[in-house]
Amino acid sequence: MSANLLPAPRTPLFLEVSFKRNYARQETVGILKNISLTGAFLEIPQHNLRNNEKINLTFVVAERERKISAEIVWTNS
């Protein structure tokens, strides 16, 4: 397997985030459970997100609000 196909090392964390779909107005709260250079694991109580769906995440790190765009690449119940 090629080295660039391997997942990047993940860093565990517990960070509350809010997110919404690109076209939505309502925000949902979730927990970022781990993060890496190639992705993150977002845990939410209930969802109907789909693969390839775009979302906007908002969270606070080092007392600064961060906003990033993301794409759902995998879902699991």
Overview of the molecule:
This protein is mainly beta. Helix content is 0%, strand content 51%. It has strands at residues 11-21, 28-35, 40-43, 54-61, 64-71. It has a 5-stranded antiparallel beta sheet, with no helix packed on it. A hairpin with a 4-residue loop joins strand 2 and strand 3. The chain is globular. It starts with 10 loop residues before the first strand and ends in a 6-residue tail after the last strand. The relative contact order is 0.24.
Kindly report the spatial arrangement of strands forming the biggest sheet: 3-2-1-4-5
The SS-based structural class is mainly beta
Low-confidence runs: none
Shape: globular
Structure annotation, total helices: 0
Mean pLDDT: 88
Largest sheet: 5 strands, antiparallel
Explain briefly what this protein structure is.
With 77 residues, the protein is an all-beta fold.
Blueprint (SSEs and pairs):
Elements: E1 11-21, E2 28-35, E3 40-43, E4 54-61, E5 64-71
Antiparallel strand pairs: 1-2, 1-4, 2-3, 4-5
Which properties best describe this structure?
77 residues, mainly beta
